[in-house]
Amino acid sequence: MLSIETIRNETDRVKKSIADRGLTGGIDRIIEMDLRRRELIAETDMLRARRNEVSGRLGRSKEKPPELISEMREVGSRIKQLEGDLRDVVAEYDSLLLDVPNIPEADVPVGDDDSHNIVVKTVGAPPDFSFDPKPHWELGESLDIIDFRRAVKLAGSRFYIFKGKGATLQRALITWLLDTHVSEFGMQELYVPHMVTREAATGSGQLPKFADTMYHDEEDDLWMIPTAEVPITNIHADEILEPGVLPLKYVAHSPSYRREKAAAGRDTRGIKRVHQFEKVEMFRFTEPEGSPAALNEMVADAEELCSRLGLHHRVLLQCTGDLGFASIKTYDIELWAPGSGDWLEVSSVSNCTDFQARPAKIRYRAEEGARPQLAHTLNGSGLGIPRTLIAIMENCQQADGSIVVPEVLRPYTGFDVIGPAS
RNA sequence: GGAGAGAUGGCAGAGCGGACGAAUGCGCCGGUCUCGAAAACCGGUAUGGGGGCAACCUCAUCGUGGGUUCGAAUCCCACUCUCUCCGCCA
Length: 422
Hints:
The chain is α+β, with helices and mostly antiparallel strands. The chain contains 13 helices and 18 strands. The strands form 5 sheets. The protein has an 8-stranded mixed sheet with strand order 1-11-12-13-16-10-9-4. Strands 5-7-6 form a 3-stranded antiparallel sheet. It has a 3-stranded mixed sheet with strand order 8-14-15. The longest helix is centred in the N-terminal third of the chain and has 34 residues, at 27-60. The radius of gyration is 26 Å and the shape is elongated. The structure holds one RNA strand.
């Protein structure tokens, strides 16, 4: 959520940023509602002040003049009426406000879609195969480490079963990632709920806009997380963090649940786009001055992980048309998958500034006794598991169809190769 | 799932229809005293909204949402959460 002050004082900049994203927004209507809102507040506050004053007097004196009491009765019902009006105005105002995206940073390229994202860095080179590399779905089935057919029987399309060394490889990857984040990158590990309340999903900006992308339990009104970002964002909701607490650097492994309705028919083979997948999520709470540097550090950490796995990758700066709703600037990290001939987004690192902190009321004091102000939040994958596994399988495949496990993972897997016999 | 108790400021805890945004204690900040510290004493110490260039004025908030009343932390209703006991359970 943007602040109303920003919308009021920098209306043109806000409008331009919405247009740059290829969206249209009800900014004028918001300003209108804001005006109406303040009028109503001023009027009710005046009446309430009058009522407080008279009631106070009435309480102190023995006399209870009936004409004053009946006047106050009227004032009371007028207040009630105005409160109803205000509620309606605020309801529309709030929902419009929640619909306004964050303002992209000045150096974010303007563009309609991901074809305008800018490659800022490429690391390594595609592997040099003396044979035709296979896509991971073929490798997975021939090595008997992924079972698509039976997963569909259990849960429908876009689900999968990892078997044997495939399942072990995934577990090894998750553990290695967490260990590296914790012991080398200085993050604190979290384990979080996989379902959250409506309020929490609203706090991180998922609801109401993206309701149809989430799985939802009607009975308890709980929402299955599409990313650990949702619960982590809300950890410090409604808190005022004491001086010196920031920055907070968290990492969490969790499953992510996504309907993928918008992508119906796309990437239907393999495990690139699925309804349930594991992810290791990086998350930081910082002071406003610290968020740009934190963004760079998080990108560097994610990249470092790709490098240590020995995977050819590139870093892209998202253009305005591709940029997430809450973000002012996002870098994507993509791994090359030679078997499917595709770049795979394994991390998307975003600076959300105070956009999530505002509705969630995540505040801090810069120093003892200072006025609370909004913290900044940043999130990014470190890394998305299935796509990283795709890259490992396709990059590390051998002529005989086996897969050589990246060296850093071997202490965790306990084997070096996934061969046909597994 | 059943029975009971509870939810008040950073913490502990009083208040149970009017002078209560809230006693008191602790903590924290500032001051006096001291070479310095401790103790003692004095003062200050919530968050958010609206108006104002500002000083400042004003409104709201005692778990949440309604209700009664001229007036609600206090009375009524619903909900949420926490704790204790019983049952069930990975």
